[in-house]
């Protein structure tokens, strides 16, 4: 069965988009929201996604350890 790319919670998409913008700004990719993503390198787009995943994992680890 193919995996859906949609978040389980429909409201989660807004939070993911916000996280993506925060990470892009931290990485120096200004005006990321209004930019055509095809003009960015795959390394830049991958860097944003990779940092998002790291943050989400860190948040879950902190949640489980009670920090």
UniProtKB/TrEMBL annotation:
It holds the Pfam family SASP. Signal peptide: none annotated. Keywords: DNA-binding. PROSITE patterns: SASP_1 (PS00304). The keyword Lipid metabolism does not apply. One of its GO terms (biological process) is DNA topological change. GO terms for molecular function: double-stranded DNA binding. Belongs to the alpha/beta-type SASP family. This is Small, acid-soluble spore protein, alpha/beta type. It comes from Sporolituus thermophilus DSM 23256.
